[in-house]
């Protein structure tokens, strides 16, 4: 019996079409789940990026029933390969407030609790009530500047331009069941459960999946210029378990209505739960895609983290100390239509090294006669 899949798939998986990747003894394979079967389409499309570009989601070799799992010796990978990995931040009012707290606390978790309530009372209602970039938002900005309450994070929360950044290099993301990395020198950090849109080279959204955009609150809180160091580290970006492709039964309206549940379970018996409700996002997901594409092209497609409502403030070790990860935490992100993405926390220093970059990937496909199928 191979690796089971049903535990990480949504309950209605039999009604949907899913695409992803699996590591086999000879290298990565592209697999499609449909009509209760696992299909290996690698001989037709050796990359997920290419399969999406050519809409190659049928045919292939039958690996067996979904209920029977992957073949022995196979394991799930992140469901993306050549796509660029982009992310939007501060797309929810709560996350905007928490970023301002990080900034004012200079990345000090102990100082955050003393700042939080005042900011929520002063800023929270205002940024929840306005449409980003609107005249009302600009009036609120002027009022907050006059009060000395303005922040670069509020600029991207209610201003005309969304925050869009590059999260992780091509081929560096990890999948369901893998270790996820947090910098070893971070003392204040948390998971970020998010919906991830999957777009082709023309910017059309073709499906969605789940992601964990790990956040280092101490690093980014000290300076926004540390964003790249906070976000882009070995194994710091998890995506999966599969991309659910849009069809007549699942589309962008389901993304807009999605609820993403988070559970963190520590080896110290600590447990934390949270929910990310996409209905509370400040900018529509398609607007985030538009802004990502406005001055840039992505010939192999891209994926886009939509941001999170969840910002944990639950104390873990001591009153006022807030939450931070510990090695061994199991982080599970779940959504009814997308399934479950589960990863165990380690440090980026101790995580398995990223070894299959673009060169190694192309060499592997060339050895298997699959380069022309990309």
Q: How would you describe this structure in keywords?
A:
single chain, 374 residues, alpha+beta, Fumarylacetoacetate hydrolase, domain 2, 3 domains, 18 strands, Fumarylacetoacetase_C_sf, hydrolase, metal-binding, Fumarylacetoacetate hydrolase family protein
Give a description of the structure.
- The chain is of the alpha+beta class and 374 residues long.
- It has 3 domains: 6-78 and 360-373, no CATH class; 84-91 and 163-353, Fumarylacetoacetase-like, C-terminal domain (Fumarylacetoacetate hydrolase, domain 2, Alpha-Beta Complex); 93-158, no CATH class.
- It is 25% helix and 28% strand.
- It has helices at residues 48-54, 93-105, 109-129, 135-146, 152-158, 217-222, 227-231, 252-256, 285-293, 358-367; strands at residues 18-24, 27-34, 37-40, 61-65, 75-77, 84-89, 163-168, 179-182, 189-190, 193-199, 205-213, 215-216, 237-245, 259-265, 271-277, 302-305, 330-335, 339-347.
- Strands 1, 2, 3, 4, 5, 6, 7, 10, 11, 13 and 16 form an 11-stranded mixed sheet that branches. The protein has a 5-stranded mixed sheet with strand order 8-18-17-14-15, with no helix packed on it.
- It is globular and about 65 Å long.
- The model has no long low-confidence stretch (mean pLDDT 92).
- It comes from Novosphingobium subterraneum.
- GO terms for molecular function: hydrolase activity; metal ion binding.
- This is Fumarylacetoacetate hydrolase family protein.
- Residues 205-345 form the Fumarylacetoacetase-like C-terminal domain.
